[in-house]
Specification:
The chain is mostly helical. It folds into 2 domains: about 1-70; about 75-163. It contains 4 helices and no strands. The protein has helices at about 10-40, 45-70, 80-115, 115-160.
Amino acid sequence: MKKQNLQDERVVAQRRKINSEAYGILMIALLFSMLIQQYLLNAPFKQYAVEFICFLCMSFYVIIRYMTLGLNIYGEGKRAKAIPIVNSIVAGIVVTVINGVLNYTQYAAQYREAGIGYFIAVLAITFISATVLSFVVLFGLDYLNKKKQSKIQKQLDEKEQEE
């Protein structure tokens, strides 16, 4: 007879929560590592390529797993509907700040000669473009996710009717 290791559900839930938090912290660390190497250290891409590939692959893996299982990417509840909008605005702000700092440090003399209006116009266009692009991507993922959920629900309904 095999000995089974029975674990308390609370212990299992806490371990899963810790692992999930560790994954989140690692993803944030990879993102900051890439940003620091790219923008502050002016490192070539080959120096932070491993971080980039790991970050991108793990992001795709999580999204694909959520979608194939029919889980909501953005969670449940009223806040889940606002997440794509908030995330796209935050992404637009982050891209604009990074692009603004880099552009101003590299082209400060040109902006002083031509006036600060061009710099502000570039920032506005960057913000709008980044926000719209990230919203389209997030909305598309949400659409595909809902489509998969309805397909799974339909399969479950068909199985239920057969029984």
